[in-house]
Each structure stands twice: as C-alpha cells, then as structure tokens.
Design a protein that fits this description.
Helix content of chain B: under 10%
Number of strands of chain A: 11
Helix content of chain A: under 10%
Largest sheet of chain A: 6 strands, mixed
Structural class of chain A: mainly beta
Oligomer: heterodimer
Number of helices of chain B: 0
Shape of chain A: globular
Order of helices and strands of chain B: EEEEEEEEEEE
Radius of gyration of chain B: 13 Å
Number of helices of chain A: 0
Strand content of chain B: over 45%
Radius of gyration of chain A: 13 Å
Chain lengths: 112, 115
C-alpha cells in the first residue's frame, strides 16, 4: 500500500518566519495530496490540497508544491503566527482508492 | 452549514465490552469514512461507506465494523474491546466517493478510553 513519510516531526519557528514541511510518497499512482491541521482536542481540518495535474497551489499564507517525478510534496507557511501552532498532517490517495494514507505529523510551534 | 458531527465525544469502556460510535456527515455528503488515531500508529483508515455499502476496508480485525443508513449517517462498532483500542475515532465525509475526486472533511472525533 501507499507509504507517506513526513519530515520534520517537530518544527519550532519564530513568529513571522516561514515554516516548511516535506512529505514523500511511495505509490506513483497517487494523485491527490491534502494537508490537514489538527489543534489539541480537535479533528483534522483541511487547510489546502493539490491534485497531480497541478504543480503548485497557494492560499494566502499557505502554499503547497508537488514534484511528481521525485514523489514529494511540501507545505509552506509564510509569516507564521502563534495561531499556526498545531500538528500538521500530509496525506495521499490514489484514483479510485477512497482512503487517505497519512504521514506521521509535524508539531509546529510558533514562538512569539 | 453544519460540519461532520460525531457522538459521543468522550467515553470510557471496560475491556471486553462493545461500543458504538455515531457520525452525521455534512448535509448532502454521501460518502462516510472512519479513521483511528493513536500516538503510536497515527491516523489509520478503518473503512468507507457509500450508498449504505462498505466500499473499502483497512487492515483492522473483524471486531471493527460499521454501517451506513439511508440518510448517510453512519455508525461504527467495536466489539470485545481491548486496551489497544483506546484512540480517537474520526469520521470524515465527502460529497461523493472521494477523496481523489472530492474533498474530505473530518469531524471532531470520539475519544475512546478502554480500561
């Protein structure tokens, strides 16, 4: 099955700096790559996603890039704020395979 | 528009008991899937339902089961509870069969503690 690896496991950044989280996937048939943010005691919240026919997608301070050849995708958060502190998960899924395979998560701490 | 609603939010059960968790998807969403989240194993897919039929199943023992009703609401059941079943159980919904074709949204989860 699909294997998704996520790095780093923890990330501490100064407020206003950028944060980057990287994920690699094993199955070249994967074509959908969402990112979720999970705050303490809550369920994962979708923050951005990208499909394999797109190389980059941006939504305000967050962006995701996809390199299909290398089978990796990254989340970029610019101008980080304290409310960005949370656990972030990447995931991947294949066409006609209706389940998400998740990375292990990255705990992001934004220092004021 | 209400999100994915899960009940109960918290529960404590004893080993050997069984538990039923409930999920109401976003209005209009027809696909419901369940995930288990633990510190050791992370987020793992349990099963997916669409049109009242289980369409996909993860690598979990038969003690884990589920069903979907005609109004798309779903329940999952875990029988003969083990300590290792302690986890956050997450329900997710999407408009149709997803996620490759549809965005998937998660509920807040049901925290199950087995003692």
């Amino acid at each position: 099955g699909e294997n998704v690896e996520q790095h780093p496991s923890t990330l501490s950044v100064q407020e206003g700096d950028s944060a980057v989280i990287k994920c690699t996937y094993s199955d070249s048939a994967s074509n959908y790559f969402p990112w979720y943010k999970q705050e303490l005691g809550k369920g994962p919240q979708l923050i951005i996603d990208i499909r394999s026919n797109v190389g980059e997608k941006k939504d305000q301070r967050i962006a995701v890039t996809l390199n299909k050849t290398a089978k990796h995708f990254s989340l970029h958060i610019t101008e980080t704020q304290p409310e960005d502190s949370a656990v972030y998960f990447c995931a991947a899924s294949k066409r006609n395979d209706y389940k998400l395979s998740f990375g292990a998560g990255t705990t992001v701490t934004v220092r004021a | 528009k209400a999100g994915v609603t899960q009940t109960p939010r918290y529960l404590i059960k004893t080993r050997g008991q069984q538990v039923t968790l409930s999920c109401s998807p976003i209005s209009g969403h027809r696909s419901v899937s369940w995930y288990q989240q633990t510190p050791g194993q992370g987020l793992q897919f349990l099963f997916e339902y669409f049109s009242e039929t289980q369409r996909n199943k993860g690598n979990f023992p038969g003690r884990f089961s589920g069903r979907q009703f005609s109004n798309s609401r779903s329940e999952m059941n875990v029988s003969t509870l083990e300590l290792g079943d302690s986890a956050l159980y997450l329900c997710a919904s999407s408009l149709s069969r997803g996620p490759s074709g549809n965005t998937i949204y998660f509920g807040e989860g049901s925290w199950l503690t087995v003692v």
